[in-house]
Amino acid sequence: MPYAANSDLPKAVRDKLSAKQQSVFRNVFNSVYEDTQDEGRAMAAAWSRSKQVEKAEYQGKKVPLDKPFRLPSGSTKKFGVYVKDGDRVKRVTFGDPNMEIRRDDPEARANFRSRHSCDTAKDKTSARYWSCRMWEAGTSVSDLTKASIQGQILKADDEQRIVWGWASVITEDGVPVVDTQGDVIRPETLMKAATEFMLSTRVTKEMHMGGKVGEFIHSLPLTKEIGEALGIQSNREGWIVACKVYDDAVWQKVKSGELRAFSIGGRAKREKIDE
Q1: Burial of 119 (0-12, 13-18, 19+ CB in 10 A)
Q2: Which of 42, 80, 206, 209 is the most interior residue, by most CB within 10 Å?
Q3: Global pTM exceeds 0.85
Q4: How far is Cα of residue 198 from the mean position of the Cα atoms in its chain?
Q5: Cβ contacts of residue 126 below 8 Å, gap of 6+?
Q6: Phi/psi zone of residue 207: left (φ > 0), alpha (ψ -120 to 50 degrees), beta?
Q7: What is the pLDDT along the chain (275 residues), one digit of tens a residue?
Q8: Rounded to an integer, what distance in angstroms lies between the CA atom of residue 272 and that of residue 156?
Q9: What are phi and psi of 49, to 5 degrees?
Q10: How remote is the C-alpha of 27 from its chain's centroid?
């Protein structure tokens, strides 16, 4: 069910995402749904792209927006987060450093959310909003605070108009990474997907829409086996790619930070993994 306008998006999406993020969500959802006719996959891809961390300048340095982080030991609050407040960036601190977050305890979670009227906490510039986010069911502190590099543009070559990054990360420190669709990708599956993509696709579009604006020109599926053979040390297994951008307007968006990530779509057969 494609969405014609942001106002058609589910309330849960509109409540949690900015207007700009909602547009990203809608465009990605519509594109993936058109390709796959799978609402669950489209929803997962849309959430992943819309939540890519946006950055802005705060006191002379670039900071991630809407991404909570732990404050140093001894601070008066447990967490901090940078948010947009009109045209300026604001630093919000929240959370009692001596209080344990017991969101997995239904009674404790209900009591906290009732005391703080979390159902009406909509202002991202308030400590109450972020405290309530920490006490939501179905989430965890690590999920909210951890930084993911998957899909992010990590290096940009201005002269050649090439951007580099991890298209997929399948393990970190030997632990399988569960992707945004709830899947774990095996190294051999990643190898086949990367090979097929470079042989048959490689085309780059803006937000999965429109015509060709570039193409993927370098690809390295880095598994443990390949890393050991080549003498490459990494705590990650995954797929490193580089994309060359041909379109002038798109490259300006990369340079300005408006486009900060990329995603690669595909299809695979899902198999259940025994616990």
Answers
A1: exposed
A2: 42
A3: no
A4: 23
A5: 92
A6: left
A7: 789 999 999 888 887 787 778 888 888 888 888 888 888 778 877 877 776 667 788 998 888 888 888 888 889 999 999 999 988 999 999 999 888 888 778 899 899 999 999 999 989 999 999 999 888 876 666 666 655 556 677 888 999 999 999 888 888 878 777 665 556 788 999 999 999 989 988 888 776 667 889 999 999 999 999 999 999 999 889 999 999 999 999 899 888 777 777 776 655 555 555 54
A8: 38
A9: -70, -40
A10: 15
If you ran DSSP here, which 8-state letter would residue 76 be given? S
Quote the crossing angle between the two packed helices 19-36 and 39-50, to the nearest 10°: 150
Give the pair of three-digit tokens for residue 112: 């906290």
User: Quick check: helix, strand or coil at residue 144?
Assistant: helix
**What phi and psi, each to the nearest 5 degrees, are found at residue 205?**
-120, 160
Secondary element (H or E) of residue 149? none
Nearest-angstrom CA–CA distance, 35 and 38: 8
C-alpha angle 227-230-234 in degrees, rounded to nearest 5 = 30
**What is the C-alpha to C-alpha distance for residues 20 and 66, in angstroms, rounded to an integer?**
13
Q: What is the length of the chain?
A: 275
